[in-house]
Amino acid sequence: MKRVGIMGGAFDPIHLGHLLAAEAAREQYRLEEVWFMPSHIPPHKHQAGVSGEQRLAMVEAATRSHPAFKPLDIELRRGGVSYTVDTIKELRGQHPALKLHFIIGADMVNYLPKWEGIEELTGMLRFIGLQRPGSFLELDALPPYIQDAVLLADMPLVDISSSLIRKRISSGLSVRYMVPEAVYEYIVRSGLYGIHS
Ligand SMILES: Nc1ncnc2c1ncn2[C@@H]1O[C@H](COP(=O)(O)OP(=O)(O)OP(=O)(O)O)[C@@H](O)[C@H]1O
Ligand SMILES: O=C(O)c1ccc[n+]([C@@H]2O[C@H](COP(=O)([O-])O)[C@@H](O)[C@H]2O)c1
Fold it and tell me: By CB atoms within 10 Å of each CB, which of 3, 28, 62, 197 scores lowest?
């Protein structure tokens, strides 16, 4: 069975924290591919300020150089609120022979009990959880059926978030090296987040 990781997020914009988390999960759990999937409307968060098309273009730019990383536009094409349970059912229908892993940072691991259809989701995939500065991943605080569905991976802690990047750009500060060069160029070229080159 092919082992695939899915890294879902708003990617507004995609940054080095996302990429290092995906690479750590890929290596430690021998994932053959990792699919980066921008959400349409995130279930529990403000809607992205930048269009789905532009967030996908940044994901494409960020993943192009890695042979195992691919963009996935399934949630942008479906529209509406991007509940993971709906997406995973759709993906399992399309690819019944995949072993799916959903890669998430500590903030999202702690939030798993509130995910739509979480009981059903834990029967369809494993989560791979990574520590993230600012949110301590506490497996013991989760119900046992969720703990059983979460695998842990290590990564160099990266204190970068999309909101930090947006805030720095709007304050005229540099975000070079917080995002891949190709993403930085896309942000400048498209004038995203009010950037001045
Ligand atoms: N620096 C990081 N280290 C580990 N995981 C991360 C990091 N940044 C984001 N993630 C994880 O990546 C996934 C997608 O995150 P998302 O696209 O919402 O980025 P974000 O940086 O959290 O955005 P925002 O700051 O706008 O809330 C989530 O599971 C999140 O926990
Ligand atoms: O389905 C849910 O209820 C759910 C709740 C919170 C987060 N998620 C998914 O988890 C991924 C990371 O979420 P976020 O809010 O950090 O971008 C993204 O793919 C979301 O759709 C999903």
Answer: 197
